[in-house]
């Protein structure tokens, strides 16, 4: 019988939930506190100014916000962990592209640590993630 309380399983749980909280509350803030219409109105002028069409601005604003919220929640409970991590990785690519289009030398202090955490969780063996629902279901 495998023991749940190993240093690896606890460390992986802490990293997974920490990463999830960062994304979950970022999505929550954009969707429920800031509101999507306000978010879009805030970013719209800069992107329209460089020729990005409004439907694309709206699509990516909604996509990234809801991915952060939903994937963050899934990561907290450890359900569909890899699907959530891949979605968050794609989310980070979109955010990085969007920021780089506006300013090629933008400050990555918030994005890069999240990228490192996501990549770490993708690469770490999932057999050690004993506190994830995926471990009990699949």
The gist of it:
The chain is mainly alpha-helical. 76% of the residues lie in helices and 0% in strands.
The secondary structure category is mainly alpha
The separation of the N and C termini measures 17 Å
Q: Uncertain regions: pLDDT < 50 for 5+ in a row?
A: none
Largest sheet: none
Strand-and-helix sequence, N→C? HHHHHH
Supply Rg: 17 Å
Bulk shape:
elongated
> How many domains?
1
Q: Would you count the extended β strands for me?
A: 0
> Strand percentage, roughly?
under 5%
Alpha plus pi helix count: 6
Mean pLDDT rating: 93
Helix content: over 70%
Give structural notes:
This protein has helices at 7-33, 36-49, 54-77, 81-102, 111-123, 133-137. The protein has six helices and no strands. 76% of the residues lie in helices and 0% in strands. With 138 residues, it is an all-alpha fold. The model has no long low-confidence stretch (mean pLDDT 93). It starts with 6 loop residues before the first helix and ends with a helix. Helix 3 (54-77) packs antiparallel against helix 4 and helix 4 packs antiparallel against helix 5 (111-123). It has one domain.
């Amino acid at each position: 019988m495998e023991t749940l309380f190993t240093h690896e399983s606890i460390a992986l749980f802490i990293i997974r939930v920490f990463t999830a909280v960062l994304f979950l509350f970022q999505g929550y803030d954009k969707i429920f506190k800031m509101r999507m219409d306000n978010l879009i109105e805030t970013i719209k002028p800069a992107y329209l100014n460089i020729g990005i069409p409004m439907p694309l601005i709206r699509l990516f604003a909604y996509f990234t916000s809801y991915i952060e919220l939903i994937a963050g929640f899934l990561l907290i409970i450890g359900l569909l962990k890899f699907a959530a991590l891949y979605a968050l990785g794609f989310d980070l690519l979109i955010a990085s592209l969007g920021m780089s289009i506006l300013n090629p030398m933008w400050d990555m202090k918030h994005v890069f640590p999240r990228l490192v955490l996501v990549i770490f969780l993708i690469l770490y063996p999932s057999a050690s993630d004993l506190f994830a629902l995926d471990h009990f279901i699949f």
